[in-house]
């Protein structure tokens, strides 16, 4: 819980500190201090709500394990011989027949 709070605080600080420095610089140093970058800093504020759900999900290790198993699930295939011989199923022998493929 503290780890999640620390990450969320870091995201907010990473966005608001540059914006605050630029605005304080414009007030006290020069009116053109970081003027070009101030638009970019203003738009960074809107990224925080978009990033927060991903940050919260990344801080839950049990959920990450579940997501990895769902996304990277390995499908175990079964290899079955296919030839013109017979196949034995349930102690009965069935001849295999070739099914012709229709041509278009």
Automatic annotation (TrEMBL):
Keywords: Membrane, Transmembrane, Transmembrane helix
Transmembrane segments: 7-29, 41-64
The protein's name in its UniProt record: Uncharacterized protein
Protein species of origin: Rotaria sordida
């Amino acid at each position: 819980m503290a780890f999640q709070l620390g990450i969320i605080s870091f995201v907010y600080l990473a966005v608001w500190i540059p914006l605050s420095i630029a605005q304080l610089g414009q007030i006290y140093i020069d009116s053109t201090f970081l003027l070009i970058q101030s638009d970019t800093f203003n738009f960074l504020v809107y990224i925080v709500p978009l990033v927060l759900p991903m940050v919260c999900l990344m801080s839950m290790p049990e959920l990450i394990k579940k997501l990895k198993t769902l996304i990277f699930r390995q499908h175990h295939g079964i290899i079955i011989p296919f030839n013109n011989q017979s196949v034995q199923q349930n102690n009965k022998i069935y001849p295999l027949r070739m099914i012709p493929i229709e041509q278009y």
